[in-house]
Design a protein that fits this description.
Mean pLDDT: 91
Helix content: 25-40%
Low-confidence stretches: 1-14
Distance between the termini: 12 Å
Order of helices and strands: HEHEHEHEHEEHEHEH
Shape: globular
Number of helices: 8
Radius of gyration: 17 Å
Largest sheet: 8 strands, parallel, barrel
Strand order of the largest sheet: 1-2-3-4-5-6-7-8
């Protein structure tokens, strides 16, 4: 069982609506059936990230525009991928990418990937969030830390990705105590390399750790040489049938 704090378990053990957050598939030309599957009615999606080419790309892509349009027509929120490179990204370049995402694909918000976690990175990230909300006042902002950051980051974003890693790390992970001060819909967990037989266990961990947006896959990162999020897991139908319905404790 994962390491848990008593406060978090008590606060989030029941009554949590879980939904899927998709970190971003391969290009729609490479994975057309998978993008089409995301637009299927009734799929419990919180949002889907659109990453054209490490961001919006250099010109409008008609295939990505079509995929994003199908998702929006199905009522699914589409987030544009923005890379913060752990605070090293030039602010002007970041803003330019955000404008392209909005102008070309009409995104509903942004995933700020490779987000800093330290307190020293807070001012620049807050500047970015404030500017993005000025450009799009309804933008849904997700900070892609991949681990628990300084709690100050939770004050400005809509959601934080507080875990992104392998199943072997996730099943023994420890939740930060400060997360108990926020509702579960503020946190996201992405888990790769997870065998099919552990899906119910993974959902229980997410609920007890207070993360309402999740993504689980059996795809691996091959030791850091591959992107485990670029395609659907082999047990996609199992996830869709379980997420949002609750798991007995």
């Amino acid at each position: 069982m994962p390491h848990l704090t008593g406060t978090t378990a008590g606060a989030t053990g029941t009554g949590v609506r879980t939904a899927l957050g998709v970190p971003g598939f391969a290009h729609p030309l490479v994975a057309p059936a998978q993008w089409a599957e995301l637009a299927r009615p009734g799929t419990p999606l919180d949002w889907v990230v659109l990453d054209v080419a490490a961001g919006p790309g250099s010109r409008p892509d008609p295939h990505c525009l079509e995929a994003a349009g199908r998702l929006r027509a199905a009522g699914v929120r589409v987030l544009g991928h923005l890379d913060l490179t752990y605070g090293a990204r030039v602010f002007g370049d970041l803003l330019s990418d955000a404008h392209r995402h909005l102008d070309w694909y009409r995104v509903d918000g942004f995933l700020l990937d490779r987000c800093p976690t330290e307190r020293t990175g807070l001012p620049e990230v807050r500047r970015a969030i404030t500017t993005l909300r000025a450009v799009s006042d309804t933008a849904h902002i997700v900070l892609g830390h991949g681990r628990h950051p300084h709690p100050g980051y939770a004050e400005d974003a809509d959601q934080l990705v507080t875990f992104a890693g392998s199943w072997s790390d996730y099943r023994w992970s420890q939740v930060a105590e400060w997360t108990a001060d926020y509702p579960p819909d503020r946190f996201c967990h992405f888990v790769h390399s997870m065998p099919r037989g552990h899906l119910d266990e993974a959902l229980r961990i997410a609920r007890w750790q207070g993360a309402a947006t999740v993504y689980f896959t059996d795809r691996t990162d091959r030791g850091g040489r591959a992107d485990p999020w670029e395609g659907m897991p082999g047990y996609w139908d199992d996830i869709v049938s379980r997420v949002g319905t609750g798991v007995s404790e």
